[in-house]
């Protein structure tokens, strides 16, 4: 029940923030929705609820039972919390295990075939990479600070993150990212471009991340290494002064 109550608060807060932003109900009016305040708010509550369902990997749910649950909650029908949590946990555990097995099987097949392609290198850790464009010869080390542009995809081509879409660059230390990035970028030269295929154990593992990266998901990244600052080189430069 805490989950449902939390969602309700989030939905109400989202609607309140929309109202406080100064936007009228006519702005960005979804197709087929009237200008009635009740209809607009109803749509937003439903939309927020839909995002909540999508983001939590519940799978194919029964909308008839969702509707019944909403009506029962409004009517004050009580649900035993222990039964609710046990049922939810058991369902999600089964679902995550099934997704993990499916994703791992698909990844194993993909890596076997991908590793045979021209230019693809498979490392000892299981990471695969391909140099798309060479750079100036300077490569990051394990604890380098780097600046990059990148796009991240699932193996089916679904884009889950992209600095290109944000028209932005990203800076970080290689110790602060997933293992596949920490290793993979050490093969790329400054000014170069690399493709990375990262097995789940070098990415987000059995837990996954967010609504798109499921348990056991392998990932594919295109990365342009704009610049790297290597600690060893910085120390040597200081000594030469």
Proportion of helical residues? 40-55%
**What is the third-level CATH name, the topology of the largest domain?**
Chitinase A, domain 3
Q: How many individual helices? A: 6
Q: Structural class given helices, strands, pairing?
A: alpha+beta
List low-pLDDT spans: 1-26, 234-241
**DSSP, total strands:** 7
From the N-terminal CA to the C-terminal CA, the straight-line distance is 65 Å
Query: How would you spell out the order of helices and strands?
Result: HHHHEEEEEHEEH
Strand content: 15-25%
Mean pLDDT: 84
Count of all domains: 2
The radius of gyration is 24 Å
- What is the molecular shape? elongated
CATH class identity of the largest domain: Alpha Beta
Question: What is the level-2 CATH architecture name of the largest domain?
Answer: Roll
- Main beta-sheet annotation: 7 strands, antiparallel
3D structure, described in words:
There is one protein chain. With 241 residues, this protein is α+β, with helices and mostly antiparallel strands. The protein folds into 2 domains: 2-79, no CATH class; 105-235, Roll (Chitinase A, domain 3). The chain is 42% helix and 18% strand. It is built from 6 helices and 7 strands. It has helices at 2-20, 37-55, 63-75, 81-114, 179-184, 231-240, and strands at 121-122, 128-133, 145-154, 159-162, 170-173, 193-198, 219-229. Strands 1, 2, 3, 4, 5, 6 and 7 form a 7-stranded antiparallel β-sheet that branches. Helix 1 (2-20) crosses helix 2. The longest helix has 34 residues, at 81-114. The radius of gyration is 24 Å and the shape is elongated. Mean pLDDT is 84; it is low at 1-26 and 234-241.
């Amino acid at each position: 029940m805490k989950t449902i109550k939390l969602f309700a608060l989030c939905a109400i807060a989202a609607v309140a923030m929309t109202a406080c932003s100064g936007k009228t109900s006519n702005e960005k009016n979804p197709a087929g929705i009237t200008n009635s305040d009740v209809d607009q708010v109803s749509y937003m509550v439903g939309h927020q609820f839909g995002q909540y369902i999508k983001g939590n990997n519940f799978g194919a749910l029964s909308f008839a039972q969702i509707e019944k649950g909403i009506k029962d909650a409004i009517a004050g029908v009580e649900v035993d919390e222990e039964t609710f949590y046990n049922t939810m946990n058991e369902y999600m555990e089964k679902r995550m295990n099934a997704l993990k097995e499916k994703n791992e099987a698909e990844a194993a097949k993909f890596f076997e075939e991908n590793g045979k392609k021209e230019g693809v290198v498979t490392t000892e850790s299981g990471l695969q990479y391909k140099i798309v464009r060479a750079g100036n010869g300077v490569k990051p080390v394990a604890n380098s600070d780097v600046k990059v542009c990148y796009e991240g995809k699932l193996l089916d081509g679904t884009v889950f993150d992209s600095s290109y879409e944000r028209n932005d660059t990203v800076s970080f230390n290689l110790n602060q990212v997933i293992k596949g990035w920490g290793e993979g970028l050490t093969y790329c030269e400054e000014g170069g471009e690399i493709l990375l295929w990262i097995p789940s154990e070098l990415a987000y593992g059995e837990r996954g991340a967010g609504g798109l990266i499921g348990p056991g998901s392998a990932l594919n990244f295109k990365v342009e290494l704009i610049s790297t600052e290597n600690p060893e080189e910085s120390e040597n430069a200081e000594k030469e002064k």
